[in-house]
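It is time I had a proper look at our fold encoding. Can you supply me with one protein entry, sequence and fold together? It will help me judge whether the discrete encoding reads sensibly. Leave the record below and I will have a look:
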Amino acid sequence: MKLPSRKTMIFMAVGAVILAIALWWAGLFSSAPTQQFVTAEARMADLEDTVLATGQLEPFEMVSVGAQVSGQVVKLHVEVGDRVKIGTPIAEIDSLPQQNALRNAQAALDNVKAQRLSMQAELAQAELNFARQQKMLNADATSREDYEAARATLATRKASIAALDAQIRQADITADTARINLGYTRINAPIDGIVVAVVTEEGRTVNANQSAPTIVMIAKLDTMTVEAQISEADVMRVKPDQKVYFTVLGAPDKRYYAKLRSIDPAPTSIANTASATGSSSSSTTEEAIYYNGLFDVPNPNGELRAMMTAQVYIVLNEAKNVLLIPATALGEKGKDGSYSVRVVNEQGEAIPRKVKIGLNNKVDAQVLSGLKAGDKVVIGDSAGAKSMQGFPGGPRMR
């Protein structure tokens, strides 16, 4: 048998390679590309529509305990963290000047009282003399002039007694004031609470002539007040008695629940404006405007501390155990109020479907009808797969 020539074999090899390439190329484009979507399953869960605010914890009641008299602080009875009751001794101020003032006031009072006793004796003598002159005048045994002099002396003694009585009352007030000032040298707790700050150390001289200097600060920490800063964009949606909860940095997974007590009618910046201008008028500013929303939360264990930062959520609306899909799955809203979504079937095709939506917080939307749990809705195409992976509801490639 005659074998093919070398030239013929080369042509056959080249032809086989060309045929293989042609078959591969035809197979590559013989079927349409499979469409891929980013999907999320419709799921049952709770849904909240909330206003987010940043707050700060303050004691429900805090008192700055000050000195009402001047002098040196000779003794401090408390330290930071001490729990005190009403009347607990806090500090003592050098009382010698107040003791001297009380002694002087008491001596002045005693002096006036002694003068009154002397005048009382003179009044008794004047009464007897007047009575005798009156009898003698009736018997024509004395002159009208002596009778008038006796009556005038009696009136003068009575007036002197009245003046001394007024001086006694005045001296008594002075002595009482000195006694009160002496009492001010012993400073006691005005409320039950915990000492949160010691402002004046032992040995310092305080001056109470212009304003009462603070010695310590006492706070009630069994209840804390949260001041939440609500932006002007959200404040019109917020009302007292709405449900509210917050977390703190030290326990981000623990929620503290309460009810909104009140909302300030003016922003906190108005006080700064009035202080700077001397009036209540405000000027245009580019700074953000915030209103304080106040609510109280029990703190029986003392785990919440003053000045802590709180991440506050004011609940506007909520739904429990409802069917949810990501809000990004919603298409345009129809005239009948329904929305269009795309649902991926078993063949991997995205089929349009109309759904009715309830609560929508712009992250998740409540489905009232049109879907069931487990349905896969399209929230993006394959080009956006990387950027959509963090959305709630478990978006994934299909």
